[in-house]
Amino acid sequence: MDLNVLKQAVVGLDEGAVIDMLREFINTNPSEEEAQKVIATCQKGMEIVGGLFDKGEYFVGDLIFAGELLNGVIDVLKPLIGSDTAEKIGTIVLGTVEGDLHDIGKNIFKCMAEAAGFEVHDLGIDVSVDEFVDKIKEVKPQIVGMSGVLTLAIDSMKNTIDELKDAGLRDDIKVIIGGNPVTKENCEFIGADAFTTNAAEGIRICQEWGIYMRKKVTVLQI
Ligand code: B12
What we know:
Layout (H helix, E strand, L loop, with lengths): L2 H9 L3 H13 L4 H23 L5 H22 L8 E7 L7 H12 L2 E5 L6 H11 L3 E5 L5 H14 L7 E5 L5 H7 L3 E3 L2 H23 L1
Parallel strand pairs: 1-2, 1-3, 3-4, 4-5
């Protein structure tokens, strides 16, 4: 597949062309690595769409369409990168925080986390503090992932962690935050354990935590 042509099709919001290219791509029996490249290419296209929105050349409706297009691409490619490994290496509770409806980045992270062998409980978008707390009590994850791209997401992330502390749940979990506005500074302000603006890096961090946690469990069993 010509990745440049694909990127241009995403930028041009040419759904028909994107679907045709994906169909052809899947027929070639692609590897997981090739599928990851296709997702990364669509992501680059999405960034350009965002830039065109900033310049006033695209409108909110175009953004919604582009968002749906990218989520569709992830759905189609999921079986290629979402290998269902029998042994789960950890559990993640994931969601886009309260007030924020953006989920493209979250969905990419989810897809990659499942492919890496994590069991992911995705709470969706605009997830309230209580929804996070209830799910964490129910499934007792090792990791909580919070996503957000709006500036206000930073406060929602902080509120969520504050509530986890009040509920006595904070010390048992690692928290990673992701999304365009997250930085080292607001990671410290929020009280998360790690931050990233790159899903692949997020997976590496979770894998390191997963290995550490499994060792801890083994030691405790002895
Ligand atoms: C697509 C989009 C939309 C779509 C969302 C569709 C969807 N299903 O998500 C729609 C049209 C619905 C939308 C709505 C709005 N949007 Co909007 N949107 C965008 C846009 C163009 C792209 C965001 C995106 O998906 N990026 C691509 C993904 C892949 O990047 P990412 O989220 O950072 O994710 C990566 C990493 O951060 C990481 N990651 C993400 N989450 C997580 C989680 C974990 C745990 C980990 C480890 C990693 C991780 O992995 C991903 C891959 O590497 C941006 C502009 C831009 N250029 O970014 C504006 C933008 C975010 N939107 C903006 C605004 C203002 C809005 C609206 C208020 C617009 C309006 N006037 O109605 C509403 C908000 C509604 C709400 N309450 O949320 C502003 C935010 C400004 C701000 N600072 O708060 C931006 C920056 C545009 C702008 N320049 O004004 N938007």
